[in-house]
Amino acid sequence: MQDGTDPYTLSLSELSPAQWLEEMREIGESFGFFEPLGPRHNAVFVEKGDTLLVSFESLPAIQALSEDGRPIGFDLAQSHDWSCLTVICNRDTWFREDEVYGFFDQMTDDGFFDDFEQVIFFGAGPCGYAACAFSVASPGATVIALEPQATLDPRVTEWDDRFTHMRRTDFTERYGYAPDMLDGAKDTYVIYDPSDRLGAMHAALFERSGVTRFRARHLGGGMQLNLMEMGVIEDLVAAAAQGTLDTNLFAKMYRARRTHAPYCKKLFATVEQLDRPRLAEAACAYIAGHFGAPRYRRKLKALRQALTTDTEDTADDGAKL
Length: 321
Known about the structure:
The chain has helices spanning 17-31, 59-65, 72-80, 98-109, 126-134, 154-157, 197-204, 223-230, 233-242, 247-254, 261-273, 277-291, 294-320, and strands at residues 32-36, 41-46, 51-58, 83-89, 118-124, 142-146, 187-192, 211-215. By secondary structure, it is of the alpha/beta class. Helix 11 (261-273) packs antiparallel against helix 12 and helix 12 (277-291) packs antiparallel against helix 13.
C-alpha cells in the first residue's frame, strides 16, 4: 500500500477471503488498527474525522454486493470523511461470540467511543441486529438498522422458522435482546418491509420510545442492496446522522423505488397474486414502458387480451338478460 492512499477507495475485488482479510489487516495497521476476534470475526478501524461509523458486515455479502469488494461502511464513511470501525463476520453469526463481547467491553473501558463527537451504528439483517445490540456500548449513539432481527431466542421468536440452525445460540446473555440494548441510544431508525410477515414481526418488537420505524414495502430479503441500487442509502445515513430523518423525508427518498426495476417487479407479482387484473395490467404496462422488458411486454399483451375477453363476455351476458 502506497503512502497517501485513501483506504476507502482501494479496490479489493477478485480476492480470496484470506487475501481480502490480509488487505484489511494492512489497512488497519496503516490507518488505525486491525484486531481478530476469534476464528469467525475481525475488526478494522480507519481513523479520519470526528464522527465514527460502526458498521457490521459479513464477508460473503461484501464480496457479493460491492463491485470493488469494499465494506459498505467504507463507502459511507468516505462520502463524509468519517472514521469507520467495521466489524466483519465470515458468515452470518449474529456476532454472538465471547470475543466480540470482549472487544466491545474493551472499547467501552478504554473510552474509545468517547473520543468522537458522534457515533453511528449501521447494519442490515443479522448485522442490523448487531448494530442495535452493540450500540449499548456507546450511549448517545445513532442507530440505523435495515430489516433487523430482535432476537432468535425461540422462547420469544419461535414463529420465525428461517434461522432454526441458530436456535441453540444463546441470545439471553450480554448484548442479547436487541430492542433492550437501544435504551441509551439517541435515535434509532428501523427500516422494514411490512409485506414480509416475519420481518415485520421482528420490527414490531422494536416499537418503543426513541425508535422510529419506516416501512419499505417490497424490499424485504435484500433491502441493503436495493437501497444501494436506488441510490438513497448514503442520503439516508447522512440524514440520520444530522437528525433530520423523519417520515416525510423517508417518503421522499423512497420515491426512488418508482425507477427501480426489482421493486416494480415485486409489486407486479403481488398484484398478480391478488387476482386484480386491471391493477396488474397497469403495473405491467409501467414496467414494459419504463424498463423495456420483453417478458413483461408479452405479459402485458396477454393481460390486455384477457381483459378484452372478459369485457366482451360481460357484455354478451348483459345482452342475454
